[in-house]
Inverse folding.
């Protein structure tokens, strides 16, 4: 950072239920004689949903809103050339944010604030909070304070990374770092485990129903421990790539990983082993019972494998699915490769189609080793198979990655999981769309939308197979709005954005999918590769309109299927199933009329945005337009402060906040939109009002 010094940082964490809200404040000072730029890297955990970014001008906080990424960068570049006051946050790598603050004048101190929300990991019988440490060469003093609601639900917190002080008061836990003035107390990543009190296993449902729209929900299901899991039989097929590119350390790690996988099997389980290069070979024609003698013999077979030849992926998959799992068994295929198909069928689409036709009831867990794997093929392979793909990057340990899976599938607890709602209630846009199997120590976190609640209460039931028998878990909750749970909207939108991004990569780009992703991101403030955050003073009004009032079309979706960039994209889009990915954030401060005029002349198509009442509005033709509005919706215009205006607000009280937007506002409903501005109706007869409310609510 040159002469820019990062003075200090403060971290405040508030944990309610399973959700942590994190606020980070950073102070920068220019110790040099000339104007300079401050820069630092801030890592986000994989499950973080970016909330807001602010630049402080004295006591004034300037906050951002989501907008088109290309347009936001254009503004930033234009401001920098004028040596004005922007700040930029951009994605510097997977989960890594690069923050830039420019300019910082000699002797000046500037503060930035970053806020995000994250779901806590499940670690055995505890919840785990992670705060990723400083990624800069320059460290700075850090104060840390964490507050946990409902302290009675937890045992004594423990940190494996730092010394902590814990206090309890008014059913609240407070955790601070011990010796926070010492550099050693601030170094590295901070991890905290919150042990769950006994008896908390079960189903938790948290709804949030904003006025005037369908509801959102977050569901957590902890299926229990491994005590009953031993009765579940497993039929395991391990498929290993032994082509020439696997030679050396990779093949030795892979063989050790397979031996470890075999060691996780119990009496009653069965296995098959398949090795492939240019051809395909197997340990045995049919299933082998997992006896001690059989595992010993199979281990010797694995140890004797040598790396040579090409890569016949199609043949390996065909062999893997030859023998179906038993009716009451959990069928699992573990597929490991470090390359692309070079022998036999080589077309990825044909390989995937044939595999899907013959897969049957197998779950597929794929491991791509290195950067030369075909991410399209592996992700498509596991997409519908209740499995997952994990990428082992160069230098990472294969044995550790597969060992984690072997520990997981050792204790299947609930399989074939399905989710339903009570009578009259419809669940839709559930994320993930295909619910995973649950294993001992797992906790399923599901987000979705719901509608059709009429009685003020509704229920959700989770069904699955446990020890060969059908089981179900149910929970009934009150239907209500909850401002403290608005984060559920963003977390749901983050999951859906990840699913849309993955669909684009795997199935191709369509205008409908691209529009859905961008509108979703703008509506909920989700940061993707197509949206950014722009902060500017309220007096700025960029009035030139985007072409046809629509954001600029994004770049085409990536088509590369292999290579480092493809693997990084695959990992990032998998993370987006649990997190919003940060791309760019722009903060513009100390703007004046002359600067606005210069920007207006320099750049076209940039419209200011603001979020009110959970909706995102963009200024178009002197009207704040709800981004959810479509041209096909009927529009009813109402004159402000007229008899019709007050009648509508009485019938639709959730519009009071947005109605205050000036000079005019257009807010979208389900089958009709309402525009409040000059020239609108001053009166509505009872029939008109009833129809409008009915169409707006849908």
């Amino acid at each position: 950072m040159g002469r820019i010094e990062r003075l200090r940082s403060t971290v405040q964490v508030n944990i309610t239920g399973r959700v942590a809200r994190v606020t980070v404040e950073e102070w920068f000072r220019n110790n040099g004689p000339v104007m300079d730029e401050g820069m630092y890297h801030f890592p986000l955990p994989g499950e973080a949903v970016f909330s807001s970014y602010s630049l402080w001008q004295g006591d004034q906080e300037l906050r951002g809103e989501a907008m088109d990424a290309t347009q936001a960068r254009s503004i930033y570049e234009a401001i920098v050339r004028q040596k004005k006051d922007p700040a930029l946050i951009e994605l510097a790598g997977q989960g890594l944010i690069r923050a830039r603050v420019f300019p910082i004048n000699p002797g000046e101190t500037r503060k930035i604030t970053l806020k995000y929300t994250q779901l806590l990991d499940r670690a055995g019988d505890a919840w785990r909070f992670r705060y990723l440490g400083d990624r800069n060469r320059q460290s700075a003093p850090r104060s840390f304070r964490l507050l946990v609601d409902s302290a009675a639900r937890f045992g004594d917190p423990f940190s494996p990374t730092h010394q902590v002080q814990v206090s309890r008061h008014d059913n609240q836990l407070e955790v601070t770092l011990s010796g926070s003035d010492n550099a050693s107390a601030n170094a590295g990543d901070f991890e905290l485990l919150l042990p769950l009190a006994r008896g908390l296993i079960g189903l938790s449902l948290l709804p949030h129903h904003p006025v005037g729209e369908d509801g959102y929900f977050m569901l957590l299901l902890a299926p229990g421990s491994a005590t009953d899991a031993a009765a579940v039989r497993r039929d395991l097929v391990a498929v290993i790539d032994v082509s020439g590119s696997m030679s050396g350390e990779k093949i030795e790690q892979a063989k050790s990983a397979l031996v470890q996988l075999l060691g996780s099997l119990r009496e009653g389980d069965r296995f098959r082993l398949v090795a492939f290069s240019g051809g395909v070979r197997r340990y045995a024609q049919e299933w082998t019972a997992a006896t001690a003698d059989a595992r010993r013999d199979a281990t010797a077979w694995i140890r004797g494998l040598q790396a040579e030849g090409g890569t016949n992926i199609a043949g390996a998959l065909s062999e893997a699915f030859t023998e179906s799992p038993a009716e009451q068994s959990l069928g699992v295929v573990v597929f490991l490769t470090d390359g692309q198909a070079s022998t036999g069928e080589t077309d990825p689409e044909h390989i995937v189609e044939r595999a899907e036709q013959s897969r049957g009831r197998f779950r597929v867990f794929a491991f791509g080793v290195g950067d030369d794997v075909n991410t399209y093929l592996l992700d498509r392979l596991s997409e519908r198979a209740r499995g997952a793909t994990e990428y082992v990057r160069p230098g990472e340990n294969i044995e550790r990655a597969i060992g984690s899976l072997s520990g997981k599938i050792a204790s299947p607890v609930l399989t074939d999981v399905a989710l339903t709602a009570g009578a009259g209630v419809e669940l839709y846009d559930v994320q993930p769309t295909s619910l995973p199997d649950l294993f001992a120590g797992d906790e399923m976190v599901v987000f979705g939308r719901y509608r059709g609640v009429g009685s003020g209460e509704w229920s959700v039931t989770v069904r699955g197979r446990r020890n060969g028998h059908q089981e179900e878990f149910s929970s009934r909750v009150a239907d209500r709005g909850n401002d403290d749970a608005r984060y559920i909207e963003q977390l749901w939108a983050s999951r859906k954005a990840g699913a849309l991004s993955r669909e684009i990569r795997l199935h191709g780009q369509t205008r409908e999918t691209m529009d859905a992703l961008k509108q979703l991101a703008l509506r909920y403030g989700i940061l993707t590769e197509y949206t950014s955050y722009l902060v500017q003073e309220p007096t700025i009004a960029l009035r030139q309109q985007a072409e046809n009032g629509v954001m600029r079309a994004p770049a085409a979706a990536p088509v590369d299927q292999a290579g480092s960039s493809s693997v990084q994209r695959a990992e990032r889009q998998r993370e987006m199933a649990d997190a919003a990915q940060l791309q760019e954030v722009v903060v513009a401060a100390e703007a004046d009329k002359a600067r606005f005029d210069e920007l207006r002349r320099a750049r076209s198509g940039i419209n200011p945005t603001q979020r009110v009442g959970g909706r995102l509005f963009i200024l178009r033709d002197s009207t704040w337009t709800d981004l959810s509005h479509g041209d096909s919706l009927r529009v009813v215009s109402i004159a402000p402060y007229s008899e019709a205006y007050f009648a509508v607000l009485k019938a639709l009280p959730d519009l009071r906040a947005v109605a205050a937007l000036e000079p005019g506002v257009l807010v979208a409903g389900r089958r009709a939109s309402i525009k409040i501005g000059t020239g609108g109706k001053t009166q509505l007869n009872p029939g008109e009002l009833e129809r409008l409310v009915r169409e707006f609510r849908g």
